TrEMBL record:
One of its GO terms (molecular function) is diguanylate cyclase activity. Its EC number is 2.7.7.65. This is diguanylate cyclase. It catalyses: 2 GTP = 3',3'-c-di-GMP + 2 diphosphate. It comes from Sulfurimicrobium lacus. Residues 175-307 form the GGDEF domain. Gene3D superfamilies: 3.30.70.270.
């Protein structure tokens, strides 16, 4: 038997989505919701707005829940009138037979109220669980979409949001904000000598070491290839330089061991402090320019961008 209401359809769609092991994106939610409900949407509509099907599913679920509560309110009002009328008649009844009839009406009406409330409670509880499931899955999906698949650092998509937020916060509260653009030295040589698997392991190793050094408020972003951006809120140039020194020490003490051989690694970095009249993009470009200065200066060093 196929689901009849939006909540049942949503739950069935969620179950099938999980069974098929597909990522919980809005597009997949909408696709499976239509599949279970038997509704087909034009392909161009799906392509234009992947969130549309999911919003339709949530709207239908909430509409069904609203209708259920509205019906419940109407039923309760009607039942209350019946009970009140029966109680009024009962107070005036003289015959035993009539009293039993009225008590039977009151009992039947009370049972109907209990049944209506219980059914509505179960339906609303199911709707709540389905919506919470969608919320949790979308949060996880959003997290995965903002994470670099290889290293676990944040990706460029996340960078735009984090940088915009931190720049706005720093300018609003007149606090310091510094970014560091970091690039592994001679990474191509490592790939050529040890293989690309070693290169991947080295990027993962760099991410783990860097995260261990950074604070919780800091952000590590894989900017591209072996290049990483570090966002340091409430940090001036001296504080950022201290972080770079700690990273250098951490890399020296814990080189990556690959096939039983340590792979020593150094990095070059460029630092830039946010000025009052620039945006996040300009800040990153200045840090990137300082990074290239560090590479031209012989690598394994840190350069500071002029304000």
């Amino acid at each position: 038997m196929s689901p009849q209401n939006p909540t049942d359809i949503a739950r069935a769609a969620l179950y099938q989505l999980t069974e098929d092991g597909l990522p919980p994106t809005p597009e997949n939610y909408g696709k499976y919701y239509r599949k279970v409900s038997g509704e087909e949407a034009p392909q161009e509509q799906v392509d234009q707005n992947t969130c549309g099907p999911l919003l339709t599913m949530i709207r239908d679920m909430l509409g069904e829940a609203s209708e259920r509560t509205g019906t419940l309110a109407s039923d309760l009002q009607s039942h209350n009138k019946t009970i009140k009328s029966s109680i009024d008649d009962l107070s005036q009844a003289q015959e035993k037979k009539r009293m039993l009839q009225l008590l039977g009406t009151i009992l039947t009406t009370t049972t109907s109220i209990h049944s209506s409330v219980e059914d509505a409670h179960l339906d609303l509880a199911a709707t709540k669980m389905a919506l919470e499931h969608i919320k949790n899955e979308l949060q996880e999906s959003r997290h995965l979409m903002q994470e670099d698949w290889l290293t676990g650092a944040q990706n460029r998509r996340a960078m735009d949001m984090v940088l915009t937020k931190e720049v706005a916060r720093a300018q609003r509260s007149a606090t310091k904000l510094t970014v560091a653009m970091l690039d592994l030295d001679y990474f191509k040589r490592i790939n050529d000598e040890f293989g690309h698997d070693a290169g991947d392991k080295l990027l993962q190793h760099l991410t783990l070491i860097t995260k261990a050094v950074l604070r919780e408020a800091d952000s590590l972003i894989r900017y591209g290839g072996e290049e990483f951006l570090i966002i340091l809120p409430e940090t001036d140039i001296n504080g950022a330089q201290f972080v770079m020194d700690r990273l250098k020490q951490a890399f020296q003490k814990t080189p990556l061991a690959y096939d039983g051989k340590p792979i020593p690694v150094t990095f070059s970095a460029g630092l830039a402090r946010l000025t009052s009249d620039e945006n996040g993009h300009a800040l990153v470009m200045r840090a990137d320019a300082a990074l290239y200065e560090a590479k031209h200066a012989g690598r394994n060093c840190v350069k500071i961008a002029a304000d």
